[in-house]
């Protein structure tokens, strides 16, 4: 079953379309994901065999690979937002969930690399939640 998804970066310069099905959805707490997201984790979807097409802003896309690791990020050079990485050698497209403009029909399947999570990433479910900025 094939699915069509669209997404964009924060500033809207980079837009893409992905045709394929998400098979994995992980919340990664490794130190590299925390640094690139500035948050507790990255939320990444993986679509084996998917087709990624850039609709606009392909000239704004930059790629970073951390030396001697498998860690890589593709991002907009204007706003810094993470966008999909077409990992052709691995036969899949890795998609940051936050850059999607369409809904997905898969829920996160696991928190990974919990041994390197931030020390403040404990009991977050107990932290008060608000629909907007609290006063």
UniProtKB/TrEMBL annotation:
PROSITE patterns: CENP_V_GFA. Residues 5-135 form the CENP-V/GFA domain. SUPFAM superfamilies: Mss4-like. The keyword Magnesium does not apply. Keywords: Lyase, Metal-binding, Zinc. It comes from the Bacteria. Pfam families: GFA (PF04828). Belongs to the Gfa family. PANTHER family: CENP-V_GFA DOMAIN-CONTAINING PROTEIN-RELATED, GFA DOMAIN-CONTAINING PROTEIN. This is GFA family protein.
């Amino acid at each position: 079953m094939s699915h069509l998804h669209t997404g964009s970066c924060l500033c809207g310069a980079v837009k893409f379309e992905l045709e394929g099905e998400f098979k994995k959805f992980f919340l990664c707490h490794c130190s590299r994901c925390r640094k690139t997201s500035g948050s507790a984790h990255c939320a990444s979807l993986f679509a084996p065999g998917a087709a990624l097409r850039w609709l606009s802003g392909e000239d704004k896309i930059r790629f970073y690979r951390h030396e001697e690791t498998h860690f890589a990020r593709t991002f907009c050079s204007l706003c810094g937002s993470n966008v999909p990485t077409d990992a052709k050698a691995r036969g899949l497209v890795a998609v940051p969930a936050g850059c999607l403009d369409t809904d997905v029909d898969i829920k996160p399947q696991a928190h990974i690399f919990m041994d390197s999570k931030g020390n403040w990433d404990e009991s977050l479910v107990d932290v008060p939640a608000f629909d907007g900025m609290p006063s």
